[in-house]
Write a structure and sequence with these properties.
single chain, 443 residues, globular, cytoplasm, AhpD-like
């Protein structure tokens, strides 16, 4: 059964998977996916340990800024310690205001990319350049932010943050969570209760287009109209009340809006707001029924390989770009052809649905993927988990009265696999928007 609890109003609230014990580290939990773990470690080394544009203390400080967006105590403590070990100036740890302007300038990028990356624009790159960051430094800094946003999602979802004993905050649980399936998916409850057997039946009944099961495509990008500029003073962010919507002509929405109440900036969030103020700036649905478009939906082809990858390679290093690209492709294509205790099973429809659903939360969609597939293989509780994990992982609750699983009969390694897919899809979505802004400023 999906790890979820019901609120007093009967709405579903997602819980973390509870797969960690206090003495476990992330590598222990990822050990069931050795190929991915190898790429994961390689990328951490490339991002944080190789001498690149930013020096060691700057890298660690930017990382702890990113960890604060989703209130990840594990990463905050780790990066504070690494900052000190690298000889970072102690006064920087007194708060963001004590860091140099070139590092402080990444604050707005941190906020926007973590919560509403479609609002990230060339004007943000312009401000970073004005603050004294070179292209190599700003691209490296953006990559660190995005990497640790994704890592925060993973640590919360797996239960590592909760298991450490550091997650002692009284997190504000959203009053409503709706992630689809209640409309256009009348058999949604069958998947929750029927587990692997129903999932296999659903996947078998789908006619999978060859494009849906291909690796991350190498299609050239289709030029889109520019994203509207979003500018803000250095210490604040425009918090628009209007919600962006998908461009017309694309498939209809596959999920209902998720309403996340704004977190308050009170004492219990002080250690996070110290390095990343504006805690109340959170995710707003890219799409809401009846809403008007603030930004166009990005076609899938307008994404990673030709813009994201090329900008990263151009301004950092080919090795870093390759490491990120390989990790994306490893996660996207990874399969063992099993589902629960069943062997020789193609899980392509399920895995693709997780990836594309996650990216659709950020306004990125393929025009050659049948989004009705999502309602067939992802039920409402699983969508709630994926959406909460992706956009507000700090709000995953501890469910003492539910089994630590997503779908009945899935193995622990398969639950971890689901988290990997969502975390990597999120990271790729952020990278696309960030590098698209870089390209538009540079060109």
């Amino acid at each position: 059964m999906f790890a979820g609890v019901a609120s007093s109003s009967g709405t579903i609230m997602a819980s973390h998977l509870g797969l960690a014990s206090p003495d476990q580290v992330l590598e222990d939990i990822l050990a069931g996916h050795q190929d991915y773990l190898h790429k994961f470690i390689e990328l951490y080394s490339a991002v944080m340990e190789h001498e690149d544009a930013l020096c060691a203390e700057e890298r660690n400080y930017v990382a702890l800024m990113a960890a604060c967006r989703h209130k990840c105590s594990v990463l905050l403590s780790e990066q504070r310690a690494r900052f000190t070990d690298s000889g970072g100036p102690p006064q920087w740890l007194e708060g963001l205001d004590h860091a140099p302007e070139r590092i402080r300038s990444l604050h707005i990028a941190n906020i926007v990319l973590a919560h509403r990356p479609w609002m990230f624009h060339r004007s943000h790159i312009e401000e970073l350049v004005k603050a004294g960051l070179s292209f190599a430094e700003l691209v490296h800094g953006l990559t660190i932010l995005i990497y640790f946003h994704s890592m925060s999602s993973m640590l919360h979802a797996l239960g590592i943050e909760a298991a450490t004993g550091q997650a002692d905050l009284d997190y504000h649980v959203p009053s409503q969570l709706g992630a689809g399936g209640s409309e256009g998916s009348p058999r949604s409850s069958e998947l929750s209760t029927g587990g692997v057997a129903v999932l296999l039946q659903r996947m078998k009944g789908l006619t999978t287009n060859s494009n849906n099961s291909a690796a991350v495509p190498d299609h050239p990008y289709q030029h889109q109209s520019p994203l509207p500029p979003v500018t803000a003073p250095h210490n604040t962010v425009r918090n628009s009340n209007s919600d962006a919507a998908y461009a017309t002509g694309l498939p209809g929405p596959v999920f209902d809006a998720v309403e996340l109440d704004e977190a308050s900036e009170d004492e219990k969030y002080m250690r996070f707001s110290l390095y990343s103020p504006n805690i109340s700036f959170t995710y707003k649905d890219f799409y809401r029924r009846g809403g008007k478009s603030e930004a166009p939906t990005l076609k899938y082809q307008h994404q990673w390989e030709e813009i994201g990858f090329s900008m990263l390679a151009k301004f950092t290093s080919q090795d870093l770009a390759d490491s990120i690209d390989i990790k994306f492709k490893t996660a996207f294509n990874m399969t063992y052809n099993t589902c629960g205790d069943r062997k020789n099973v193609s899980t392509t429809p399920f895995r693709r649905a997780i990836w594309y659903y996650t990216q659709s939360l950020y306004g990125i969609r393929r025009d050659d993927y049948d989004y009705s597939t999502i309602n067939e293989v992802l039920d409402r509780p699983l969508k709630v988990f994926l959406k909460t994990m992706s956009v507000a992982p700090e709000r995953l609750v501890t469910a003492h009265d539910s089994a630590p699983s997503i779908i009945d009969d899935l193995r622990t390694s398969e639950q971890v696999h689901i988290v990997i897919l969502a975390a990597e899809a999120r990271m790729q979505a952020e990278m696309v928007y960030a590098m698209l802004a870089v390209e538009r400023y540079y060109m």
